[in-house]
């Protein structure tokens, strides 16, 4: 089995620094990993909502939520889930 870490290693970080980073990630507890994942999800959701508010300045929260579903799941599934034609 090959080591895939070199494939995903950033090219702006030294190999030694990347190894330290990977070691720290491996040391995280499951709850720490979940907390980090939730934080990243919330940040991404907030950025997406802000971008959609700029794109649709008159949209209410329901419309913004629908537009997010369109971008995440595609228009067909979003329309079916939100019962829109």
Order of helices and strands: HHHHH
Rough shape? elongated
Average pLDDT rating: 90
The parts where pLDDT drops under 50 for at least 5 residues are none
Major sheet summary line? none
Tally of individual helices: 5
Number of strands: 0
Classify the beta-strand content into a percent band: under 5%
Helix content percent band: over 70%
Separation of termini?
49 Å
Give me the secondary-structure category: mainly alpha
Radius of gyration: 19 Å
In short, what is this structure?
The protein has 85 residues and is mainly alpha-helical. Helix content is 74%, strand content 0%.
Q: How does this model look, in words?
A:
The chain has helices at 5-8, 15-27, 30-55, 61-73, 75-81. The longest helix has 26 residues, at 30-55. The mean pLDDT is 90. The chain is mainly alpha-helical.
Structural topology:
Elements (H helix, E strand, L loop, with lengths): L4 H4 L6 H13 L2 H26 L5 H13 L1 H7 L4
Helix pairs in contact: 3-4, 4-5
């Amino acid at each position: 089995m090959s080591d895939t870490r070199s494939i995903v290693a950033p090219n702006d970080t030294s190999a030694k620094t990347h190894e330290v980073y990977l070691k720290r990630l491996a040391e995280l507890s499951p709850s720490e990993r979940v907390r980090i994942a939730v934080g990243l999800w919330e940040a991404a959701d907030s950025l997406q909502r802000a971008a959609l508010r700029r794109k649709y300045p008159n949209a209410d929260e329901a419309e913004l939520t629908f537009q997010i579903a369109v971008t995440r799941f595609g228009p067909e599934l979003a329309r079916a889930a939100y019962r829109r034609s």
